[in-house]
Amino acid sequence: xxxxxxxxxxxxxxxxxQELESRxxxxxxxxKKQGTELPETSVLRKQILExxxxxxLQIQYAAQTGLKVDDNQLDKTVERIAEQNQMTLxxxxxxxxxxxxxxxxxxxxxxxxxxxxxxxxxxxxxxxxVSESEIDNFLTSQSASNENKDExxxxxxxxxxxxxxxxxxxxx
Length: 172
Hints:
The protein is mainly α. The protein is built from seven helices and two strands; from the N terminus they run ββααααααα. It has helices spanning 17-34, 41-64, 71-84, 89-98, 103-125, 132-144, 167-171; strands spanning 6-10, 13-16. Helix 1 packs across helix 2 (41-64). The radius of gyration is 25 Å and the shape is elongated.
């Protein structure tokens, strides 16, 4: 009797065939609900395995760097998701159970998603730097292009001035 097998080892964690198959079922159901055409089975399987590996690596890195999602934040997020679906927590839990997903698994998935989102924010936002010359180049290229003629309405413009500036100083 086959119980389960390891399909990937990610650092010190394993991804089992059962986890992979479970994710494939979930993704397939999402595609069908959206009416989107499914890719070939082998391609879908490979893409989902790659995603599981990437997610596992990111969660491990987040744990190593001390990034955690506390239970209060997780509870609020689950409540918000239930509200967005116009359900109480009990109704939401029952709907998940009807779809074959336990509340424990759903909470673990949401915790992982929040952790990965926070990790990306921390790692990416800290490294993205746009210089003044890049902005100028972009604006120049946009003004040369006749395709994009965006208009913006601005109601407030804040200009920092020294506290002791006189009206004459501001005209300069």
